[in-house]
Amino acid sequence: MSFATTIAVENLRVSCLIGCLDPERKGQQIVRVDLSVEVDASAAADGDDLRRTWDYAAISRETAFILQSGRFHLLETASRFILRWLLLPPQPGESRPGARRGSVTLTKFNVLPGEALARVSLSGEAPEYTVETNPWGTVDVVDECRRLGLYRLNVAPGQSIPNHYHQRMREAELVLTPGLVGWREGGSEHRRVVGEAFHWGKNEEHGYRNEGVRPASILCVDSPPFDPADEVET
User: Fold this and answer.
1) In CATH, what number does 5-125 get?
2) How far apart are CA 88 and CA 131, in angstroms?
3) CATH number of this structure's domain 130-233, picked from the four choices 3.30.450.20, 3.20.20.80, 3.40.710.10, 2.60.120.10
4) Cα-only R_g, the chain
5) What is the pTM of this model?
6) Which H or E run contains 75?
7) Which residue would you say has higher pLDDT here, 46 or 11?
């Protein structure tokens, strides 16, 4: 029997740089996040199995990473990036169900007089996504705007994202699945842990190799959006 299950995270507080005004660009502020997804969780309920449903901790970690790494100007842009991330189909080899619908509400405090709150809400169904193919795997283009791009890199078993750097782009990456070994310029290789985040500046060399038996995924925030001409392999 199939049911529509709503999974929600409410009152998640994230400290991040967000806003258009000069004072807001000089320091972080707290943003409240309320989000939900509608899924078919019948397989998880049948097996009483976390692997077949959504992990609240992972949702919260990934949402916070997007907000903190994006350094957004508008709540409208931030909420769209988060919602499109939530609605992206599961990673290759992942057991959880995809989301049918989702919603995101972002609330800012202390930006209006008195106790007034600034809030943006967004909801919708899963859209279509562009998937790019590379020698080492695939890239899901989650969202792009003038300043930022959000991507999921899926490294095939036994394949590597070669050592490289970017000439203009800042890059933040969050490890989503086990199996990855990574390195940075001048450093030794280390096994990457799920939930580990990395921030790469301009001209900072780095790379990854998937030593697992399943595709390994990385959540990536690029500023400006990814441009193949900006990437230099070494």
Assistant:
1) 3.30.1130.10
2) 11
3) 2.60.120.10
4) 18
5) 0.95
6) helix 75-87
7) 11
